[in-house]
Design goal:
Elements: E1 5-8, E2 16-19, H1 24-44, H2 52-64, E3 67-68, H3 69-76, H4 80-92, E4 96-100, E5 108-112, H5 114-136, H6 140-158
Antiparallel strand pairs: 1-2, 3-5, 4-5
Helix pairs in contact: 2-4, 3-4
């Protein structure tokens, strides 16, 4: 019987039951395929010297910068001290530049340097190339199904928890 309830074990982050409308086995398949694709995209970028948090911060700074660290932390849903620790190596490596905040002298803004912009472009290019190679192996029907699924996947990442 399909109850559409996924039961998590303590090994998967605690015991819980969530009504999903999907078969638990399908939820596991979805979780695994998303995790594996994420890992493969990360590996394709060839930049294993940066953490996921650092790459996410770079992309967020690009989209919203110049930006205060506190606002960046809020957008990334982390504590301000965590964001400070995440951004410090990016500043040290020259990917991010700190600027004085014209509205508040006690505060600083961060923005991407030219090197940071180039790094993100390189990573995105490599990841897009991987997806292009993979989707080229799909038949026309599979590509159509994938394109039809994009709005649903976009909704999944847009939900706030």
């Amino acid at each position: 019987m399909n109850s559409g309830v996924e039961y998590g074990s303590s090994a998967e982050g605690g015991s819980s039951a969530v009504e999903s409308g999907l078969d638990p086995a399908d939820l596991v398949r979805l979780r695994l395929v998303v995790a594996r694709l994420h890992r493969q995209l990360a590996q394709a970028s060839g930049r294993q010297d940066f953490t996921f948090a650092q790459l996410s911060a770079l992309a967020r700074i690009e989209a919203h910068g110049p930006i205060r660290l506190g606002e960046l932390a809020t957008r990334e849903r982390v504590a301000a001290p965590s964001m400070t620790r995440t951004v410090a190596p990016l500043v040290a490596s020259g990917l991010v530049t700190r600027l004085p905040d014209p509205d508040d002298r006690r505060s600083a803004l961060v923005e991407l340097s030219t090197e940071g912009v180039e790094l993100l472009a390189e990573i995105r290019q490599r990841r897009s190339e991987l997806l292009a190679r993979r989707t080229a192996e799909l038949d026309a029907r599979e590509r159509a199904v994938l394109l039809e699924a994009l709005p649903v996947l976009e909704r999944l990442v847009a939900f706030e928890d």
